[in-house]
Amino acid sequence: MSKDLPQQNPSEEVDLGQLFKLIGNAFDRFFKFIGSILNSLFLAFVWIVFFLKKHFIKFIIAGIVGVALGILLEKTSEPVYKSYITVKQNYNTGENLYNAISYYNDLVEQQDISTLESVLGVEQDALSSIDKIEIESTLSENQKIQAYDAYIKTLDSTVASTIDYESFLKNDKDYNHRYQQITIKAKERNSFSAVFNNIIENINSNPYFKREQEKDIKALNEQALAINRSLIKSDTLLNVYQKAIIKAAENNNNSQARITIDNKDTGSSTKEFELYSKDLELREKLVEIERNIADKQHIIEITSSKQDSGSIDNSKELLGKSMGLKSYYALILLTLTFLVLMGLEFIKFLGRYKDKI
Predict the structure, then answer these.
(1) How far is CA 284 from the centre of its chain?
(2) What is the pTM of this model?
(3) pLDDT for position 341
(4) Which residue stretches of the chain are H helix?
(5) 307 with 84: CB under 8 angstroms?
(6) What residues contact 163, with CB distance under 8 A and at least 6 apart?
(7) The pLDDT of residue 316 is above 50
(8) What is the Cα gyration radius of the chain?
(9) 300 beta partners
(10) Which phi and psi (to 5°) does residue 135 adopt?
(11) CB neighbours of 90 closer than 8 A, spacing ≥ 6?
(12) Membrane-spanning residues where (predicted)?
């Protein structure tokens, strides 16, 4: 009877046992690998702590020297004056504006003041002291998030799901933003209002943008004219309804009187309200058009101006962050001290490692 029962294959038991053993070894090696990484990170952290403790006095001295150097340079170095304006682009002038600023800045760096004078139409006395001309978007981080949200809403849900915030920022160009800030840095305190005005005028006088401006203003004026004609007809028809209501009330002495328009019986009060609502809608549209016409009068315009004569700017930029001279040089010397000490420790390590070979 027992001979009829299926016999279990010994090779299957061996294969299954080996499989579990391999899986167990894989997990064991994985956890040991993770543990070794965590252990190495902990040892590196401990080493950094003792390294900083060992050279703490040296870092303090480097920081003090950096602050002292910053104070000394603030007192002795030639001051830099900064003046800036904020402009609003009513057309897609961003790329053109950025290219123009880059060209002006190249002329400044090359000290080609005569060419800069002919381009900007400003006397050399006001240009010779200029050290740099810059432009950047005034969009804040919150405004960028709002722009991303507004952009996503314009897309199909399938396409929108493939675009994240980082991708949006990567493909978004600063010059596309409506508000831009133009900055002039100079070695002398001068009035740069003429320079700013001529930079803007060069964009406003661009033939392409002027043609676009003429077409837009013409189209808006035609829309305003059509709306005004509609308003006149609407007012006339509204007067007809009002007279009809008054006449019907006089004849029938009934506030619920009805009149016949286009062979259809409709409530006159309803028709009057519809006309009034349409009239209000048209007037709101007309106000919007007039506002657009006012905006289109300037291709690009100055919205605010700060320190036309320039204010002292002693800041330095490090990794995109602006900071004072004291903080800047203190951080620079601390970083250099750290790198030098780390280099010396690495050389010592190589020396000990060489002796073990």
Answers:
(1) 32
(2) 0.65
(3) 86
(4) 10-54, 56-76, 94-109, 113-120, 124-127, 141-153, 157-160, 165-171, 193-204, 207-252, 268-296, 325-356
(5) yes
(6) 152, 155
(7) yes
(8) 38
(9) 89
(10) -145, 140
(11) 295, 296, 298, 299, 300, 301
(12) 30-50, 56-73, 328-347
